[in-house]
Write a structure and sequence with these properties.
Distance between the termini: 24 Å
Order of helices and strands: EHHEEEH
Strand content: 15-25%
CATH architecture: 3-Layer(aba) Sandwich
CATH superfamily: Gcn5-related N-acetyltransferase (GNAT)
Structural class: alpha+beta
CATH class: Alpha Beta
Number of strands: 4
């Protein structure tokens, strides 16, 4: 299923925080102490994601009605962050997010 790409809205915050926590855990589990992963996840849940900042562009990729990933890009086109929920990796979510933002910024 092709991802639907859109800007995140308020109701996306909690699902995107959990997605980010799962994605980070899948990358760092076994490489960082468990306590550090838990502390980072708890901090993220407390702070949330600031997707309303005027100096950055966010893309939320939705598959089947739920967030499957997100990208954060600076206005000069720099990729600041790209996260894909582990079950959606390898399905084209990440490249779709990245390409969408670059085209929106006219960076090719």
């Amino acid at each position: 299923m092709e991802p639907i790409l859109r800007r995140p809205i308020g109701r996306d915050t909690a699902p995107l925080v959990e997605l980010y926590a799962r994605a980070r855990r899948s990358c760092y589990e076994g490489h960082l102490p468990e306590a550090e992963l838990v502390e980072w996840s708890e901090g993220l849940r407390a702070e949330g994601l600031d997707h309303d900042r005027p100096d950055r562009l966010w893309t939320c990729a939705e598959v089947g009605g739920v967030p499957a990933g997100f990208a954060l890009v600076s206005f000069d086109g720099g990729l600041l962050q790209l996260q894909v929920d582990p079950p959606h990796r390898g399905a084209g979510v990440g490249p779709a997010e990245h390409d969408h933002r670059r085209m929106e910024l006219d960076l090719g």
